[in-house]
Amino acid sequence: MPKDFLVFIRSCAVLCSVMLMVACGDREARNSSFLSVKATDARGVEIVLSDYAERVVVLFEPFVDEMYMLGAGDKLVGIPQQVYQNPSTYHYLSQVDPRIARREIATPTFGGRSTQVETVIGLQAHLAIVYEYDTETIAQLEGLDIPVFVVSSKDKAHIYDELVGVATLIGKRKRAEDIVAYINKAVDEMATEADSVRKSVYYAWSKGRVFSTSGRGSLVDLSIQVAGAVNACPLPLEAPNVSAESIYKWNPDMIVLWNSNVNDVYSLAELAALPAVVNKQVFAMEPTFFFDPHTVKFLLFAKQLRHWAYPEYTDKTFKHELEEVVGFLYENNMSLE
C-alpha cells in the first residue's frame, strides 16, 4: 500500500476523532447548561433542579390560579383543599381543568394550611410551592429533599419575581415575562388616567373581618393606588386591627370588601352613622376569583375599584377591559359567567 495513502488514512482517522470529541463536548455543554434550572424564592434561597419540574404541588391557593395563567395546570399533582371549598375558585378553575371539576387532583392539606407531608411524598413532586408563613411545612419538605419554592405575594415586585421564578423552574419563563409586561403596561395606562380628586378607600379583610384592614405599603394599598384612589388607613402596617373610632376619624368615601358580604358592614351598629355606610358606599368584589389581590389580578381589583369610585369609568368600559384581561391571562379558555 503506498505510503502517501497510509498517511492520508491516518490523517482522516485523527480528524474524525477530533470532530467526534468536539461534538460530544458541545452536547455535554448543552446538557450541562440545560441541567442548571434555577430560581431564587422569597427567602432569597436559590432553588436548583436537574430538569424542569413536571410534577408540582402547590400549597398556596393563589398560586394554583397562577399556574393556570402560565399554561402549566397539567403539571399540578397536588393543590390546597380550599380550591374545592371556595365556590368561586372551584367554578372558574373547573372551566380550564376537568380534573378540578371532578375533584381529582390530590389535596395534601387540611382545612387551613396544615399539610399532610406523607401525601406530598406519595405524589412524587419535583417541586413544592409553599407560602412563606408555613415554616413547619417548608422545613419538613426540605428535610425530605423535596425542592421548595417559597412565595410571599407581599407586593407587586414579589408577585412578579415569584411568578417568573416558578415559571423558570417549570419551563414557562417566556409566558411569565409576557404576563408581567402585559400587567405593567395596563398599570401604566391606568396611572395616566387617574382622576385629579382622589377618593379615600377603607378596605376590610375577608370573611367579615371589618375591623382588620391593610395599611400603606400593603398589597391592597397597591391596588388602591393603581385605581387612582388613596388608602384611608394611614398606618404603615400590612394588617392592622383598628377601632370604629379610627374609621370615623379617617372618614373614607367608600368601603371595599373582598370575600365578604356588604351586610357584614351594614349590620354593624358601630358604623351605622359613618357617611360611607349612610350613603351606601360599601362594595364587595364579586366574583372573588377575578379580583384576588395576591396575584397579578391586583390589576382587576384596581379596575373594579376605579369603576365604583369614578363614574366616568363606565360599566361598559370596565366589563370590556375585564373580559380582555381575563382572555389574556387564561388564553381565552375561561368565561366570565
Give structural notes.
It contains 15 helices and 10 strands. The chain has 337 residues and is an alpha/beta fold. The chain has 2 domains: 151 residues, Rossmann fold, CATH 3.40.50; 135 residues, Nitrogenase molybdenum iron protein domain (Rossmann fold). The strands form 3 sheets. The chain has a 4-stranded parallel sheet with strand order 4-3-5-6, sandwiched between helices. The chain has a 4-stranded parallel sheet with strand order 8-7-9-10, with helices on one face. About 5% of the residues have low confidence.
Question: Could you give the topology of this structure?
Answer:
Elements: H1 3-34, E1 37-40, E2 46-49, E3 56-58, H2 61-69, E4 76-78, H3 82-85, H4 87-96, H5 98-101, H6 117-122, E5 127-131, H7 135-143, E6 148-151, H8 156-170, H9 173-192, E7 200-204, H10 219-226, E8 230-231, H11 244-250, E9 254-258, H12 263-266, H13 275-278, E10 282-285, H14 298-309, H15 315-329
Parallel strand pairs: 3-4, 3-5, 5-6, 7-8, 7-9, 9-10
Antiparallel strand pairs: 1-2
